[in-house]
């Protein structure tokens, strides 16, 4: 634990400094927000983070009240400083497995235990786990897309639309299965610019879809996209089959969101028909003692949303730990009463 450790009579003993009330997996907005609440609740908390935030390529973060325009890395740095001041331990590393501790109680009235294994083979013992491992974006396999990701190849109009307002904007369709989502993206982005072109990227559009694009004065390019044109480290256009370069200074794409939820799935957490792990309004999964928040379970959560989900999960976790402690405390003062 930190030298700033706070004594808490309801916490499990930590003689070697590796046993906690809560281990938070992932140190992004959701994880650090949860750690802040739990640290202030005088819980023993560890945040394990691999240092690979989803929004690392973005220069600025928007839509977060009080921090609009702040670089994402600075928000996380501030958050780490804040949680550390409450005795939260920050652990650099990746979690490879989460499992119930051998012989741990299974009764909802008893204290559960989990073992959290890190990539260096160290193990953290904890009463509860909060998974905030986010998601990864699968983008079209077009030369230049990955390189420009988060710069002038964008995915969220609410995060970046204002910064490219009134510029020549393109909407790049991905695989045919996401054409409808890409078209919806185009109509939303049209709100920020009068010069929008939809690159169907070889997908076949229906007559109704074409009519809607024309009605909104959105241009249509049917040919497959070959690459993005870049000059002096700035996007200048979209190159289509045949070699024509359609001038654009920003392009939006609707990626396929893939949750980083292997820890939750391996634990046996219920997965919805949508393919995302099921949680309730507090982030509780189907496994008692295991919570999740942010993009790991909610693909549409922006930074501010993820932070709010982390806070809500932290409050629920602390309340749950108190509920676990009550019958144990009663049995201590009334011998013979089952815990």
From TrEMBL:
<feature type="domain" description="FAD/NAD(P)-binding">
    <location>
        <begin position="20"/>
        <end position="309"/>
    </location>
</feature>
<dbReference type="InterPro" id="IPR036188">
    <property type="entry name" value="FAD/NAD-bd_sf"/>
</dbReference>
<dbReference type="GO" id="GO:0004791">
    <property type="term" value="F:thioredoxin-disulfide reductase (NADPH) activity"/>
</dbReference>
<dbReference type="InterPro" id="IPR023753">
    <property type="entry name" value="FAD/NAD-binding_dom"/>
</dbReference>
<keyword id="KW-0560">Oxidoreductase</keyword>
<keyword id="KW-0285">Flavoprotein</keyword>
<protein>
    <submittedName>
        <fullName>NAD(P)/FAD-dependent oxidoreductase</fullName>
    </submittedName>
</protein>
<dbReference type="InterPro" id="IPR050097">
    <property type="entry name" value="Ferredoxin-NADP_redctase_2"/>
</dbReference>
<dbReference type="Pfam" id="PF07992">
    <property type="entry name" value="Pyr_redox_2"/>
</dbReference>
